[in-house]
Amino acid sequence: MPTTRRDVSILFDGSFEGFLCVLYAYFYDGVSPLIIQEDDNHQPTLDTEEYFCITDYDKAEKVHQAVNKKISPTAGHHLGNAFLADREDRYMTLFQYLLLGFKVGSRIDDSLQQDCVLRTHKLSRQVGREAHLLTGFSRFEETQGGIFYCPLEPNNYVLPILAEHFSDRMMNQSWIIHDKARGKAAVYNGMEYVIADVPRSAQVTHTENEARIQDLWLTFFDSVNIKERVNPKVQRNLIPYYFRKSMTEFKLRSGQ
After folding, report:
1. Cα separation of 247 and 205, whole Å?
2. Is-above-0.90 flag for pTM?
3. What angle do CA 97, 100, 101 make, to 5 degrees?
4. What share of the chain is helix, strand, coil (3-state, %, to 5)?
5. What is the tens place of the pLDDT at every residue in 168-212?
6. 177 to each of 7, 11, 238, how far by Cα in Å?
7. Which of 8, 45, 140, 167 is least enclosed by beta carbons within 10 angstroms?
8. How far is CA 24 from CA 4, 12, 33, 228, in A?
């Protein structure tokens, strides 16, 4: 482990494994990040050395195991969730969180007086809550190819969490979850899923039966609705507007 480190701007590929390699580079390559940026989005500077951190899956796995063993599995959970938050400053926050964790161990998540811990927990909760809500609010539509398609526009990159969830819940059905906000999709073939880049505007062709099912769902939605007890304010809190873009009951209603 190096005794001295040089201050640099660290660039990486934006992947979770790439971020873990940033930690490896700090401990073993003698670099200390002044800023951590994705290579595609970085702003060049003239007065700071740039260091590109190459993603090495073996190194990433070593760091990941160290987080769970030397800090705690709970810290590993917060790290995984918070990394998916749609915040540009999350990388330095998580880097500082992990450095502190390697110093204090499992006590890290009780150190809420530390800004990096408080912010990491906040990001983790935001991502976890959105992913949890979308496991219930996601709507799959039958396509002519026999694949069920679910379009979403989440605030955070919760696609990996949803893919893991639905690969267990719909393990015998082929499906696609399309994150239209980021141009990515999780594609499941009945055995395993992959996440790939796809056009945000990609479209699918629905079956005729899908239209009938959506009509039936809207009829059911209206039949259980008690007009005298409608409370738009509570409904907005429980189902935010941005979820409704891909929910059958609200999507059909807006088109009427």
Report:
1. 17
2. no
3. 85
4. 50, 15, 30
5. 999 999 999 999 999 999 999 989 999 999 988 887 787 777 666
6. 41, 29, 22
7. 45
8. 15, 12, 12, 60
